[in-house]
Write a structure and sequence with these properties.
The structure holds 2 protein chains of 2 kinds. Chain A contains 20 helices and 2 strands. By secondary structure, chain A is mainly α. Chain B is 71% helix and 0% strand. Classes of the chains: A mainly alpha, B mainly alpha. Chains A and B meet through helix 9, helix 10 and helix 11 of A and helix 1, helix 2 and helix 5 of B.
Chain lengths: 636, 206
């Protein structure tokens, strides 16, 4: 038994977390005694203990699960021990609940964990639509409703869209560039375990005194400074999720720069690698800003600082500038990896080279650059200096250009292609439709007078769901279906997949399309009830949204049954050229027996004699000739 | 990273367990070095966000700086600046020493750097104790404590790294061939120094 508490794992983590609570209690007690809280009654403050615990307990959990073991070992002054890859691979589902340094295991951990939070966030949305089905209903009370939409947005942004892309990238990128693993495998393992911590903190805020954080995922000061303790769960949860993003982004950048296979120049990289390269740059540069904005809120809340106390010279507008300087680039963090996925899927399923490969890569970099120049378009009605609106409106309109380049390049790739309309391709085409609609309403919102008219209405809700659901989530579904055979070694049920697409696509548009009309008519967002004139459309939206929720069950059922008992997948079911498809499904524990050599572009479909990667003659039968597109038997 | 470049002894365990092939090195830059440089970009942006707050509170609001009735100990902090800057030179000396195989120079350099860093932090804390205002007083005091405190936290992290490196140096871990373990924390320490020059200039002098 004692050995269980010494070895890394959940037992040790539980013990450490208990220690974390005791530490927080002791620390706040001592500090409050030392700093003039005179009476014994004040020595123990539940709020203070909770705040410190929210930092100490997650860290204690990470120590207990074994995330820091190697660095403790290093800090103790012992000889460095290279990662020996002995923990690679997973033989049972239990292995996914341990620290593991294999990028393929971590990729699956990331993806499954993210989809768990998608389901939770989706269920919360169902509760909200139940409340909004009729005006003046009392399904939940107003404060709970505010908590619901805040947690819904925070979970889906910080625990679903951002990390699920990191998860797919984690699995695919080392394979795509011909590397045996990520550059920093231990950091990779730690970065995953930060995520469930952050997610459970945000969910846990529902049990905090005063309810969950209820001022939206934007947490504007000074509202967030005076909110109940649930707000601290958000401010600290974001720190853990953000730390995880930054670690993964560093890892991606270093892996992509230093570990590409021989011959894989930057302009022979698949566009998914380019997309994650661009995204990682955004994460590294922008994420510290949201961390800082929540530090400010936390310092104001916990220690009585005056960042946002206008009576003492603080500046509340500063919060919005700092927050949006992260959170606008963050919408590209949530979109660029999806662009990469769509490029892969469309080129393979249309059997054509991607149109304008270099422009596709450059437009990603253009979005990275321009993404930092548009943040104040979220603040047209905030009361900032009016002249800032004009340059921000112009840059916002300009950033539609590189995005438009990508849309037209995909359309040109489809032109006269041999389209294979399977589930992944359907989602890619669905993405092109809905994301373009979301992009157009985005350009409308860049226009200052129009933005002022629809600010804080359902038009905004419609727009963000057209780009994040119709954009990001469609690409995520496309990517999950596309790489499902590679990740699990099984084929999914194509018929169920198509049902999933059509129900999702139809109910998505029925749910979010009418919200544009509601917004134009002036229905405010983020309120638990509304004027009776909006009742009919809201009832319609609620019913459609339940259909959208049910369509997700098709996906879950398909994935679970296919993973358990689907037909075995061959190594390269889509006849793709990129390197990840040239190994068995699932890939061997060490990816490649020999590092491949890249001799051509990744998308030369239909070009006679085109070769992307070649493998030197290797002893293992799992390595096939890449260029010929040979479909070979699975490794089992 | 490390693992990929380590050749595995082919003689034993070929059947039960063999590692992956060594990754191709597609860049001359060391992965650890690159990772640290990218991390420093993130760190600069953290300071950038705090400087944004500083900009809004000090410049956009236009209140007098330092706030009425408060003075900033420019001279003491200047001394402290000299201490921190000199520690950048001593760690550079330590790196040069180990590149030539001079273990005594490495140990002396690391120990000096560590002690200089500790005195910087000690003087900083002492300054907080005697400065006569608190972050709770008003926004200007808040931003003073936040910027210097954020930097102090970075000095603390840097000192932890230096402590580990010093312990390892005394245990004889580094060699002219393998000194990344000194170099990479060294870059972080240089960053902490340069960032202090920016903080000192904007907060105390301007």
């Amino acid at each position: 038994m004692a050995a269980r508490f010494r070895a890394p794992g959940f037992y040790r983590a539980a013990l450490m977390m208990l220690g974390g609570v005791l530490f927080a209690t002791a620390l706040t007690w001592i500090v409050r005694m030392a700093t003039g809280h005179a009476t014994f009654h004040h020595y123990l403050s539940p709020d203070a203990i909770l705040t410190v615990s929210l930092i100490a307990v997650p860290l204690a959990f990470l120590v207990g699960i074994g995330g820091f073991d190697y660095w403790f070992y290093w800090a103790a002054g012992r000889a460095t021990r290279p990662e020996d890859h002995s923990s690679h691979g997973a033989s049972s589902w239990k292995d996914y609940f341990r620290i593991n340094t294999d990028h393929k295991v971590i990729g699956v951990q990331y993806t499954v964990n993210s989809f768990f939070f998608l389901l939770v966030g989706g269920l919360i949305a169902m509760l909200m639509r139940a409340q909004l089905a009729q005006p003046g209903s009392h399904f939940v009370d107003g404060n709970t409703f505010n908590g619901l939409f805040s947690v819904h947005a925070s979970l889906l942004i910080f625990l679903f869209i951002i990390p699920v892309f990191a998860g797919l990238g984690n699995f695919v990128i080392p394979l795509m560039i011909g590397a045996p693993d990520m550059a920093f495998p231990r950091l990779n393992a730690l970065s995953f375990w930060l995520l469930p911590v952050a997610g459970l903190m945000m969910l846990g805020s529902f049990f905090a005194p005063g309810g969950a954080f209820a001022d939206g995922w934007t947490a504007y000061a000074p509202l967030s400074v005076n909110a109940p303790i649930g707000q601290t769960f958000f401010a600290l949860g974001v720190q853990f999720a953000g730390a995880s993003s930054i670690m993964t982004a560093l890892n991606f950048l270093v892996t992509i720069i230093t570990m590409r296979a021989p011959g894989m120049s930057f302009f022979r990289m698949p566009l998914l690698v380019w997309a994650n390269f661009a995204t990682s740059l955004l994460v590294v540069i922008a994420t510290p800003f949201i961390a800082a904005s929540q530090f400010f809120v936390l310092l104001d809340r916990a220690l009585g600082f005056n960042f946002f106390n206008a009576a003492k010279g603080g500046d509340v507008l500063m919060y919005q500038h700092v927050f949006w300087f992260y959170s606008h680039p963050a919408v590209y963090i949530m979109m660029l990896p999806g662009f990469g996925i769509i490029s892969e899927v469309i080129a393979v399923k249309a059997r054509k080279p991607i149109f304008g490969y270099r422009m596709m890569a450059f437009s990603l970099l253009a979005i990275v650059g321009l993404g930092f120049t548009v943040w104040a378009h979220h603040m047209f009605t905030s009361g900032m200096a009016a002249w800032i609106r004009i340059p921000m409106a112009i840059t916002t309109a300009v950033i539609a250009v590189p995005t438009g380049i990508k849309i037209f390049s995909w359309l040109a790739t489809l032109w006269r292609g041999v389209l294979h309309l399977d589930t992944a391709m359907l989602f890619a085409l669905g993405f092109l439709t809905t994301f373009t609609l979301g992009g157009i309403s985005g350009v409308m919102l860049a226009m200052v007078p129009f933005d002022i008219h629809v600010s804080a209405t359902y038009f905004i809700v419609a727009h963000i769901h057209y780009v994040l659901f119709g954009g990001s989530l469609m690409t995520i579904y496309a990517g999950v279906y596309y790489w499902f055979p590679k990740m699990t070694g099984r084929m999914y049920d194509e018929r169920l997949g198509k049902w999933h697409f059509w129900t999702t696509f139809v109910f998505f548009n029925l749910t979010f399309g009418p919200m544009h009309i509601l917004g134009l008519q002036g229905m405010p967002r983020r309120v638990s009830t509304y004027a009776s004139q909006f009742a009919d459309l809201n009832l319609f939206i609620s019913i459609a949204s339940f259909g959208l929720g049910l369509s997700t069950l098709l996906f879950i059922y398909n994935i679970i049954t296919s993973w358990r008992g689907g037909p075995r997948a061959v190594g390269n079911p889509w006849r793709a050229l990129t390197l990840e498809w040239q190994v068995s499904s699932p890939p061997p524990v060490f990816n490649f027996d020999r590092v491949p050599t890249v001799v051509g572009g990744p998308y030369e479909y239909g070009v006679p004699g085109a070769v992307h990667g070649i493998f030197a003659p290797a002893p293992s039968p799992t390595v096939a000739d890449a260029g010929a597109g040979v479909v070979h038997a699975p490794s089992q | 990273m490390e693992a990929a470049s380590i050749p595995h002894p082919a003689a034993h365990a070929e059947h039960e367990h063999h590692g992956p092939p060594a990754a191709n090195r597609s860049s001359r830059v060391e992965p650890q070095l690159l990772g640290m440089l990218l991390f420093i970009i993130s760190e600069i942006m953290v300071f950038g966000a705090f400087f944004t707050a500083y900009f809004f509170i000090r410049i956009a609001n236009g209140d007098p700086w330092p706030a009425h009735g408060t003075t900033l100990p420019v001279g003491v902090a200047g001394m402290n600046t000299a201490i921190l800057v000199s520690s950048s030179f001593t760690i550079h000396w330590a790196e040069q020493a180990i590149k030539k195989g001079n273990h005594l120079g490495l140990k002396a350099g690391m120990l000096t750097t560590f002690l200089l860093g500790c005195s910087f932090l000690f003087i900083q804390i002492n300054e907080y104790a005697n400065i006569g205002f608190a972050p709770q007083d008003a926004a200007q005091q808040t931003i003073f404590y936040s910027l210097t405190g954020l930097h102090g936290a970075h000095v603390f992290i840097g000192l932890l790294l230096l402590l580990f490196v010093t312990i390892r140096a005394f245990r004889g871990h580094y060699s002219p061939e393998e000194h990344r373990g000194v170099e990479v924390p060294g870059i972080y320490w240089h960053f902490v120094d340069v960032m202090w020059l920016v903080v000192y200039t904007t907060v105390y002098i301007l």
